[in-house]
Fold this protein.
Amino acid sequence: MRPKALIAAFATLFLAPFSSAQVISMSHEGITSGTLGGVAFPSTTFVITCLADVSNRVSFAGGYYIDHSSASIAIAGVGTYDLLLATRTFSSSAGTVGFSRAGSSGIDLFDGPPMPSLNWDMTTALSQITGTGQVQTWQAPGVNSSGGMLHLTDLYCPWKFHAALVAGPFSSSCFGDGSSTPCPCGNTGNQGAGCGNSTGSGATLAGSGTASLTNDTVQMQVSGLPAGVPGLLLRGDSNSPLPAGDGFLCISGNLQVSQVGYGAPNGVAYTHFNGATFGSVANAGAPTHFQFWYRDSASACGAGNYNFSNVLSVSYVP
């Protein structure tokens, strides 16, 4: 396999902390009337669904809050729309859970009742809690949404809330560490990596960030590369090993070259990758597979001067 004329965009190389995100999904439910894009709708159920990274939780004097990576509202009989205003969910020391504008002083939009015994720190799942909530401050200037300006009627109404931790979006496979198919010339790599390269180890592809179709912050890291070698980040719909070069090409099906990058002198490459821009990522929950192809002039097997990392599979949420 030879890279095509190198794609114009090169991966940004930088050294930074790299850790997996834990995504939390939170749901605020109530009943009210209002207008959307200037069209009135009667009293009906609405559900606000928010996604956030728990590592972004902020502690303040009154409790905790997390700014959302995305938020949408489903209005029964009307439709489902993205909220274009930056928002957050908070949990106060008084036991109140609420939905508000983002930031340390964001104005409240929908609050639950005080529950002094709740003591939720926003890092764990929370079974459904109920009570009487308050819809407030949606009238002026309103909240911009993908369906137009949204104004909800301020009132007290039945309130429900729950939170769930989203299963980790990243999983790995197609290893060259001896745990599955033997590498082409016995060039076993280190645990969790691809087949061994001229460094004596293998290349490992890992991911971090929020895998969300509406706010994709996925970042890919490749480690264990020979210094300074060029490589291509590939993506595909299927995952099955095929011997190639000094390792395995494991991804296929709508195979695309997604990014180009060079390993740093320490054999590590970092890149931001917006996977949601590719069509086959459009189905939330269905894994999309990634693998890093790279040159290795001092080939371990002398079989083409190239090799592959393990496969990283990413399951996107809406």
